[in-house]
Specification:
Helices cover 15% and strands 36% of the residues. It contains 6 helices and 19 strands. A hairpin with a 2-residue loop joins strand 12 and strand 13. It is globular and about 45 Å long.
Amino acid sequence: MTNLLRKLTGALLLLASLPAAAQTPRDSAALAQAEWQTTDLGGGAVARRTQTELFGTQQTLSVAIYPRRGFSTLVVQPEGAARATSRLGEEAGADIAINGSYFHMKSAEPITFVLSDGEIRNRGTMKPSPLTNGVAAVRGRKGRRVEILPCDSADYPRIARRYRSALAAGPMLVHEGEILIYDTDDTFYTGRHPRSVIGTRPDGSVVLLVIDGRFPGRAAGATIAETAYIARQLGLTEALNLDGGGSSSLWTRRLGVLNHPTDNKRFDHEGERAVPNGIVVFRR
């Protein structure tokens, strides 16, 4: 997989250090010292929310963390119309849900590879790029092992054979503990937007992260480099960027929508966008 990652991303540099202009030790301290509002979700899972200054801006972060033991993870893509992430979670009977990968805005048609409960739901129509250079894959009949892997379309048949669920997205943010830096001036990477992330820690626990954005003074959003930095600071050794912007939403059965989705342009929990797929989590 490491050779594949190098082949896929000619514009990609793997660096042990962070770009000097993007983050500072002050940012590390701010995140380490942030006051988190933490809620026990049961079974060792927690939801955490904070608002703190990072990168010279105000940031609002929402996180759900759950252990490998006692939880199952599944990619869902139901038939029919797209729906809010919270509804995806409710309909699945899940305890936690986060939005999935990229899709056509007008038709809500998914455009990345989707494997749900052993069935290929979408083969992926996006051209190879860093936006599809990773996959969140779930192994085992009970769906208890989440793996974040670099991949391209040539890997999809193998993934479909080996995993129960999988969702292609990108770019990869962290791989083998190293932050991945993308040398591009594309505003998708350099602009501050809402971001959604799935990642894993060395103990196998899974972290779902949403960084709110488009609310100046409350939630500025993050660049891809800043998102990777936050993911690494949260202890992720593998992390994958999911669809962001107005799609970013993180929900729990106990608390409802944790973050502040942007589609209604209000800093509340009501502005979810309808999405075709998502990642849902069950306590077993």
